[in-house]
Amino acid sequence: MTGATLARPPVRHQEDTLMLDQSPTFGDLRLPARFWAKVRVLPNGCWEWMGACRGGYGRFHVGNRNALAHRVAYEALVGPMPDGLQPDHLCRNRPCVNTAHLEPVTNAVNCRRGSRAKLTEIDVRMIRELRGIISQRKLAQAYGVVYGNIGFIQRGESWIFPTPGG
Ligand SMILES: [Zn+2]
């Protein structure tokens, strides 16, 4: 028996492969100037949509279509949204169009996040202190949030606490 037969590829979960590590550039020319004119950068890195919103999400006209602004940003800067997935905000800031804060998830995951645990500041501090000690997946289970949220909290400068109903 050779070592090769023992070597199994690590199990890759879909969430791992879809995590976004690349940093998009504000003002990227793949989006029109009229898009960027409606965006302001917040201290935590969110690109907040200042234009029209519906249900808390920014809207942007593309041709005859009144599209979701964060989705437009994702498709321009990252690529087509994979079939059956929708961009979810890791920063929990609905008007944000920063593609580094978006993660494609299934509708089921998005719904689960909708009823997400309300993390307190103490939770967030604890999650950061446990970085590298407890796996992101275990932390996600323990706190009732989705895997991607843990990485965002641990990497992110700040975390926007969900407002009631938001
Ligand atoms: Zn954001």
Give a structural overview.
α7 packs across α8. This protein has two domains: about 90 residues, Homing Intron 3 (I-Ppo) Encoded Endonuclease, Chain A (Alpha-Beta Complex), CATH 3.90.75; about 45 residues. The protein contains eight helices and seven strands, in the order αααβββββαββαααα. It has about 170 residues and is α+β, with helices and mostly antiparallel strands. Helices cover about 35% and strands about 15% of the residues. The radius of gyration is 18 Å and the shape is globular. A hairpin with a 5-residue loop joins β1 and β2. It binds zinc ion (ZN).
Quick structural summary:
The protein is an alpha+beta fold and 166 residues long. It has helices at residues 3-6, 14-18, 33-36, 69-77, 107-114, 121-129, 136-143, 147-155; strands at 39-41, 47-49, 53-54, 57-62, 65-68, 85-89, 102-106. 34% of the residues lie in helices and 17% in strands.
